[in-house]
Amino acid sequence: MNKSLFPQIYPVACHTDQVGNGTIFVAVPGKKEDGISYIPLAVQKGAAKVVVQQDAILSLDVLDLLMRNGVALERVVDARRALAELSAQEHGFPAKKLTIIGITGTKGKTTTTYILAHILRASGYKTAMLSTVENKIGDMVFSAKLTTQHPDYLHTFFALCVQQGITHVVMEVAAQAMTLHRVAGLEFAGLLFTNFEREHSEFYVSIEDYFAAKCALFTFRKPHAPVLINADDAWGQKILVQHPDFLRFGLGSQDYDVAARVHDVNAGIVADVYIGQETEALHCPTLVGRFNAYNLLGALGLVVKLGLTLKQAIRAAASFGSVPGRLQGYTLPNGARSFIDYAHTPSSFTQVLTVLRATTDHLIVIFGAGGDRDPHKRPVMGTITSEIADLVLVTSDNPRSECAEDIAQQIITGIAAGNRHKLVCELDREQAIKKAYALSRPTSVIVLLGKGPDEYQMIGSVKYPFSEKAILQSLR
Q1: What SS3 class is residue 208?
Q2: Are strands 456-459 and 462-465 parallel, antiparallel or unpaired?
Q3: pLDDT tens for residues 195-225?
Q4: Strand residues in 173-225 grouped as ranges (E)
Q5: Digit-coded pLDDT (tens) for 137-190
Q6: Which residues contact 198 (CB under 8 A, 6 or more apart)?
Q7: Which residues of the chain have pLDDT under 50?
Q8: Complete DSSP assignment for 89-139
Q9: Within this chain, do residues 176 and 207 fall inside the same structural domain, yes or no?
Q10: How many CA atoms lie within 13 Å of 99's alpha carbon, on the beta-carbon side?
Q11: Of 317, 338, 369, which residue constitutes the final position of a domain?
């Protein structure tokens, strides 16, 4: 990863790793830790000012430390919102100098972001991208720790974009980014809603709360900025009832503002695309599956509404490569094929496995479920895989603070007795991959679900290096 140009010290920071001489340190209260406990370290590293919430209780020792070092103290109503406002201000409001495009939804955000950034770049725009997989400014690549980064990072990123002559930034916007005010103060020149389903029940009390967090993004649009909503999605229809001026896209009706008639999704996406009075034939050989047809159509529609012609957009889309960890394919030594995919929800499992099922007579699936995340989906994913696949290897996937064996057992409860003959439980994920290969034949397809581009296992609070790609490449 190219880290040489990305500043290590921020003018405003919520983590002491980015605090240096003159930094404003914002002590953000969190679920596990409170930023006020790091005030002494921030002062030691040169913070010139400390910002805390109004109700924060500071010890006499901390107050004395601030006074002795001449560090200013400011109390605010909401530290998270203050972090966003101060970060923008100290950088000179760089986001106002950029065309920022936001992508939200439960699934498809990353792929749509990659497609959008590619189309813009191939059409001659200087483009940056913020995604779950990686962040990019032109050809510079930076690691991504969150789907939507904290605002101190975001405004540092935007400032670097301005320095590098970037005009357009395409970014994923997670629901938590709205709830935690990470994008507060931003104005989006274009927005796209991919789809919606239950997820993050560990963070949101109800699906309605989660949906409301997604929809809060629409309040950040610039006046008259295009907003594209997947009208084939039931929750998308709810948005359109509330916002009839938003634009509709989908595969279900040519009456939509952006529509497509799909001819093939298994050998690359082949379709006719309709936008306004324009119609163009589309072939994107690197994307497969109906779910990717939605991602591609949404991206095409938004760039056209932002000024490209449909012909320009489709010409650029035809040269799209791939997204790391999204149906990335490998040929194994025995002739079998393997795919790594980030799918981690029931509907994503159904979509990916249905596509791959049509390509083989022997489908092997390896998956687990992340710890400290929505437990309701675990048995459902067990049901789906056991009904579609020929062989199911249940394993671990970032158990975090939970017991990996307990998670596996919750998955297994969803596998009916009549499908238990397909089941292999191997909690060591590397051994599960090797066992699947040993059980494969030249016509097999082995699909690894859940981790996608991630190259680590999170056990407890520790990240251990773990590369599925490297394991596949080591098979003999």
Answers
A1: helix
A2: antiparallel
A3: 998 776 777 889 999 999 999 999 999 999 9
A4: 190-193
A5: 999 999 998 889 999 999 999 999 999 999 999 999 999 999 999 999 999 999
A6: 207, 210, 374, 376, 377
A7: 1-2
A8: HHTT-GGGGSEEEEEESSSSHHHHHHHHHHHHHHTT--EEEE-SSEEEETT
A9: yes
A10: 18
A11: 317
| Three-class SS state of 358 | coil
CA-CA distance, 227 to 306, in Å (whole number)? 10
Please give the model's pTM, rounded to 2 decimal places: 0.89
Q: How many domains does the chain have?
A: 3
* Residue 188 falls inside a structural domain: yes
312 and 429, same domain (yes or no): no
- Token pair, residue 89, equals 């201000």
| pLDDT the model gives residue 202 | 73
- Position 327: which residue type? L
Enter the tokens of residue 50.
Answer: 């400390």
Q: How far lies 441's CA from each of 338, 402, 413, in Å?
A: 12, 35, 28
Q: Which position has the token pair 């695309």? A: 273
Tokens of 471: 């394991």
Gap between the Cα atoms of 400 and 410, Å rounded: 16
Is position 262 within any domain? Answer: yes
Domain assignment of residue 50, given as a range:
12-80
Residue 449: strand, helix, or coil = strand
